[in-house]
Structure formats: C-alpha cells, structure tokens
Write a structure and sequence with these properties.
By secondary structure, the protein is an alpha/beta fold. The chain contains ten helices and 15 strands. Strands 3, 4, 5, 6, 7, 14 and 15 form a seven-stranded mixed beta sheet that branches. Strands 10-9-8-11-12-13 form a six-stranded parallel beta sheet, with helices on both faces. Bound molecules: NADP nicotinamide-adenine-dinucleotide phosphate.
Length: 334
Amino acid sequence: MSAEEFTCLLLEEGEDRKVSHSIQTLSNDRLPEGDVTVAVNYSTLNYKDGMIINGLGRLVREYPHVPGIDFCGVVEESAHADYNPGDEVILTGWRVGEIHWGGFSQRARVKGDWLVPLPKGLSLKQSMAIGTAGFTAMLAVMTLEEHGLSADNGKEVLVTGAAGGVGSIAVAVLANLGYKVAAGTGRAETHPYLTDLGATMFVGRDELMEAPKGPLGSELWAGCIDNVGGAMLGNVLPNIAYWGTVASVGNAGGIEFTSNVLPFLLRGINLCGIDSNTCPKLRRLEAWGRLAEQLPLDKLDAMTNEAPLAQLPELAGKILQGQVRGRTVIDVNA
Ligand SMILES: NC(=O)c1ccc[n+]([C@@H]2O[C@H](COP(=O)([O-])OP(=O)(O)OC[C@H]3O[C@@H](n4cnc5c(N)ncnc54)[C@H](OP(=O)(O)O)[C@@H]3O)[C@@H](O)[C@H]2O)c1
C-alpha cells in the first residue's frame, strides 16, 4: 500500500441491479468521511459479509461499496481526542461495511467513536479471529449471566449453529467458564472439533427442527445461544429450564417462528435479543476485556483459518451455505 492509494474489494451494481465484485486500487480521496484513518491489517468473514458480497438483504444502500463489517489496524491519522497515530484499534459493527465503507480494504476511514482500542493480551490477528462473531458470542454469554445463568445449574447450555463463527466462540467461552455445553449442529463431522472446543453433548439439527409435543417440553437446557432462529428458536423455548434465558443472535435458518407463552408464564424463561451493531461503548469495552481474559487463545487459534482478499467471493458463497467452520481472518495485505 502506498501513502496515496489502497487496494480493496469493491462491489458495484449493474443496470440489472446485479452486484459484482473486483479487487481495485483506489486513491485515498475516495475514502469516506471520518475523523480517524486506519491502515488495516486484518478483517474477517461474518455471515453478514456473505450476504453483502452476494448483494442480498438490501443491506447496502449505495454502490460502489467496500464491504467488510470488521477490521483492525493501526491509526495513520486522527482528529479524534482518544486516538493518535500508531494506536492499535478494532472496529466491529456500527453498520460499517453496510452503509459506510468497511474493512475489506488496506485503508479505512471511520468515526473514532466507533473504534475500540486493541485489548491487552490479544494480537491484531486474534482480534479479527474474534471479530463481530466472537464479540456477539460474548454479548450473548453476558446476557445469559445477567439473567441468572450460573455454572452450578448443572444442566447444559445449548448453542445452536455451533460449528459456525458465533457458535464456535460461544462454545469455547462457555466451556472455559465451567458451563456444560450442548452443541446443536447439522454437521456430524464437526463433533471432534466441537469436543476440542469444550462441547460435552451433541444435538442434531433434525432433532432441533422437530416441534415439541406440547406447549411445555422437558427442562433440557439451562439456557441457549441461538444462531439459527426460525422454527428452531420456537422449538427450543419449551425445553428451557425454569428461569433460563435464550439469547436470540442469528437467523441462519430463517426469521419467522411460532411458539407459545406457557414457558414464559409457567417457567419464567426469558427471550433476549442481541444487537452487536449498536452495542454501547462501555458494554463493548467490557465484552472485549472479557474476551481477552476468558476465550482460550489456543482454542481461538485452532478454530481460525486465514485467507487473502481475493478469496472472499468464494468464501462468501460458502458461509451462506453453512460450509464455513469456525472463523476466517482476512489478511488484506496478502
Ligand atoms: N445479532 C447480532 O448482532 C449478530 C452478530 C453476528 C452474527 N449474527 C447472526 O448470527 C448467525 C451466525 O453468524 P455466524 O457468523 O456464526 O455464521 P456462520 O459461521 O455461517 O454460522 C452459522 C451456523 O448456523 C448453522 N446453519 C446454517 N444454515 C442453517 C440452516 N439453514 N438451518 C439450520 N442451521 C443452519 C450452521 O451451523 P452447523 O453447521 O453447526 O449446523 C452454520 O455454521 C447469522 O445468522 C448471523 O447473521 C448476528
């Protein structure tokens, strides 16, 4: 990367409204407005990036667009009071990569208020192995705990879509905190991988897609981090134990669900939404601090693959088909 130009993945919309992608080198004056300019080291691949690269979900308003909802790197220029050139920073969310140019780029310009400093104990690369997926997993763990989950409960915490990015990090963090973890996955071949991350029980996707027999099922789970949504979410609620909580994180399996109110009225369960995009700064700092301390880095390294910018279109297709395991870091300078 030169001081005047940067290379990025650029999305363009054709007259037929089809979105195409190419690797382009652009001059710095194409960068969007913002008070901090960052030389990006790494980005990462999330489910939402898969949608954006494939032009799905109407998440991008204007083209040409640089996608990438996460990045980390080193501050080059700053007019923000909290950041100076040379600072190592992370960005996740705030709709960067959707309505603001994102991190699949060697250089990014954003609002300093959106950044967090790299927490002590994590390398830049590890911060992107975590990325939005891992940050969201920690927000979900925090939410379950704030609603009363504790490791002495004895029952398993269910993680659906366990072999995906959010799921893998949720399994590793929960297991490290002493929870028993049941991994809900449609890929039996990932069982050894999930066992290494700390899962002690497996539930097949087919089983989780079966509607419970009545409005209240057995009290199977102390809580749940749900990355799948749709019918699976509706099916899980009647199997949550007294006072347990479900963190609704994802929609990899759909957005609509039906269920019934009895688990809420007769077992006091909770259903909580997680929005990593607009998470307030103090909670962000808490989540990143906890990730640096409570996510075992050997497990993070074991679930992480690395790829160059040029491989993103292929990986974007795979993540939408549920074929990506764990986390993928993108080396934007490779
Ligand atoms: N709320 C937030 O702030 C937030 C933040 C990040 C992500 N998300 C959402 O959370 C979800 C997971 O994100 P991710 O980055 O972890 O994606 P990912 O790596 O693709 O993981 C999703 C996992 O869900 C399972 N899955 C995929 N398609 C499915 C289907 N049709 N039916 C049932 N299960 C299916 C697969 O797990 P198995 O192979 O193990 O079955 C897959 O690995 C996505 O919906 C994403 O949009 C939300």
